[in-house]
Amino acid sequence: MGLSRLTPAQWLVAILAVVAIVLSVWRLEADRAGLVIGPLPGPTPATVYRPANGVPAPVVIISHGFAGSRQLMESFSLTLARAGYAAVAFDYEGHGRNRMPMSGDLDRIEGTTQLLKAETRRVTDAALAQPWAEGRVAILGHSMASDIVIRQALADPRIEATVAVSMFSEAVTPDSPRNLLIVAGAWESFLAREALRVLRLSDPEADMGQTIGDPAQGTGRRAVLAPNVEHVGVLYAPTTMRETRAWLDAAFGRESAGPVADRGGWIALLLVGIVALAWPLARLGGKSRAARPATLSRGRFLCVALVPAVAVPLMLWPFDTRFLPVLVADYLALHFALYGALALGLLVWWGEVRRPGRDEALRILGLAGLVAFFGIGVFGMAMDRYVSSFFPTPERLVLIAAMAAGAVPFMLSDSLMVEGGRAPLWRGVLARGAFLGSLGLAVALDFERLFFLLIILPVVLVFFLLFGTVGGWVGRASGRPAAVGLGLGLFLAWALGVTFPLFQAT
User: Fold this and answer.
1) Higher-confidence residue: 4 or 123?
2) Local structure of 176: helix, strand or coil
3) What's the rounded mean pLDDT across residues 261-266?
4) Phi, psi at residue 265, to the nearest 5°?
């Protein structure tokens, strides 16, 4: 029986992982209790969070940053809805479930920025037309959206307060927009300095944590740091939630009490529980009879790990790689594909890759499908519900397919290099580090065109840390590194395909 194959340690991990998953889901779902959550009518995908008492409430429009979605902002939505506001979070063009690609000129304020402002206004208009809206409105945005909401607040006199998280905007003046709260993570050093600079436009002697002016009169301004967090962690920090709620209460003459939505730890526990569950699950297939792959010599390993890392950015540098309706994903797909092709070519040339028989090939494909399903179906479902959009609109299927054409050969070569997790740890660290360094070299060679790759690098790093570990468990238990590479390649292609913003130049 499969369960009998688990060691006592794996049984313990399985039990703890299931407890962590159940407890996290229970706690995360509890934040929704007593709220009415549903769609906002209109062409832009948007979700409304409001109290169930039916009393009309002030509206807060909530917008995400680059490569984000409305799920990423849910701590704000839940905190404000539980405080009596009607929170409306939406997906910008090109993001999340929004099927309309971003367009315009990204480098000019008169370009894409104006289109995103127009979409923000359409969502605002639709929200204020609902019977649960009492007429007053505030606006909140993170990162890229911080500039959008500030410019929209300057253009729309209905907006009584603005919350800019991880803000950078050249549009702020000493007295506009009205009632501006700026929140930065303490580990966002540049944005923390920017928050202080903007605060001192109103009062050169002001300091972080000090309120300038009077929110009740529309003249309020405040900048605060959320401790021990960075660009994403600031979206989950209790300090961010409390400051946002208190600022809006001051602007609207309201009072709120009680806990805020403190979800970051529970989300982390849920995702760690799902990843940890892969260890005992990998053992349920039984001990593999597949032959252990031969160990690459040190010299050959270094050649396979380092030659593509240097060669690929140099080979792609002279060419225009824009062929997909999405920012820099086309380059990344080509980088993956060429990187994997070079590495696999070297492995085949040296006779390190052998063609499997029919039965073994079927076992490899079956295991690859299970690995991909665990990543996309199980981990992905948790991501889509609690973190960020993970299930694609039809327009993204072509992008996922293009990413798979590159990610699959890359992850296959990676898994063969590290022998499905059986190679020494330093080899795995060097192989993945060399690839990240290769992307960094590509950005350095063409910073203007490939700048947005820097935003995707953390996604790739987290993938290596989490699912490189999962791949090691499956590879050691199954003895089939090719299956691990194929499955993780499909999962990586999916994860990147739903992350990149869709973009159509005009």
Assistant:
1) 123
2) coil
3) 96
4) -65, -40
What pairs with residue 162 in β-bridges?
Answer: 139, 180
Host H or E run for residue 223? strand 221-226
The pLDDT of residue 293: 56
Segment 470-498 shows an average pLDDT of: 93
Neighbours of 473 (CB within 10 A): 21
> Residue 429 and residue 293: Cα distance in Å, rounded?
19
Q: What is the pLDDT of residues 74-102, one digit of tens each?
A: 999 999 999 999 999 999 999 999 999 99
* Domain edges within the chain: 32-262, 290-497
Give pLDDT, residue 1: 45
Return the DSSP state at 180. E
CA 64 – CA 148 distance, rounded (Å): 10
Q: What is the 3-state secondary structure (H, E, C) of 9-50?
A: HHHHHHHHHHHHHHHHHHHHHHCCCCEEEEECCCCCCEEEEE
Q: Mind listing the pLDDT tens digit for each residue in 130-139?
A: 999 999 999 9
Q: What angle do CA 414, 419, 421 make, to 5 degrees?
A: 90
- CA distance readout (Å), 377 to 316, 390, 428, 490: 34, 10, 26, 12
- Cα separation of 64 and 231, whole Å? 12
What is the torsional sign of CA 314, 318, 321, 322?
positive
Determine the residue type at 262.
D
Exposed, middle or buried by CB within 10 Å (0-12, 13-18, 19+), for 194?
Answer: buried
Picking from 49, 41, 51, the residue whose alpha carbon sits closest to that of residue 77 is 49
DSSP, residue by residue, 420-462: GGTS-HHHHHHHHHHHHHHHHHHHHHTHHHHTTHHHHHHHHHH
For residue 347, what are its two tokens?
């492995």
**CA-to-CA distance for 444 and 455, rounded, in angstroms?**
14
Helix H, strand E, coil C: the string for 284-311 is: CCCCCCCCCCCCCCHHHHHHHHHHHHHH
* Domain spanning 32-262, CATH architecture: 3-Layer(aba) Sandwich (3.40)
